[in-house]
Amino acid sequence: MAGVLGISTVLLFGCNSQESDAKKEEPKKETTNKKHSEDTTKSKKAELEQEKKEEIVKVFDINDIADKDLDSVIKSVGEGTKIDSGQFKLTDGTIVQKETYTFKDGLLEVMFLDGLAGRITITPKEKFKFDDEKDVDKAFKTFGFPIWSSDEKTENAIHFTSVGSIAGDGLNDVTVFNNEGFINYIYVITKEEYK
Length: 195
What we know:
Layout: H1 2-53, H2 70-77, E1 80-89, E2 95-103, E3 108-113, E4 116-122, H3 133-142, E5 152-153, E6 157-161, H4 165-168, E7 173-179, E8 182-189
Antiparallel strand pairs: 1-2, 2-3, 3-4, 4-8, 5-6, 6-7, 7-8
């Protein structure tokens, strides 16, 4: 009987030993999963902080300027300075009065044709990369443009015409011009006859 008792004791100790090893390993797995979860949370927080830093500050909304009269534009962007006046020949040959104003320290230039903003030049102060689609979109958002797909892109310009949503947005022609890899200016023509 003494021999049987000894074997039982050894088996019991062996079982307890394996169980205690398994219990020791489990907390390590939980710690690893917890650490991974914390790293993921930190990563998401960092992404959100980066997005906040990249938030777009809208300078003005092109829809508050395009095809609007001088008083409406002044209400939207502030006082301007008259830099030119005279006559302008429309595509059909009609002669109309023009007045050109600059606003926001040269950021915005508007040619009013028969009293309405018909030709608009935006010269961004911020550097937007010409060949970076996200940067072009950011420039558009900064000035209140919707985002469109371009009709044509060359090394010097990205062109958007009245095809598709741009016509619904009340604009006829928008061109983004390149200067040494950055957007030099954005040129807007609100109606076909103003080309």
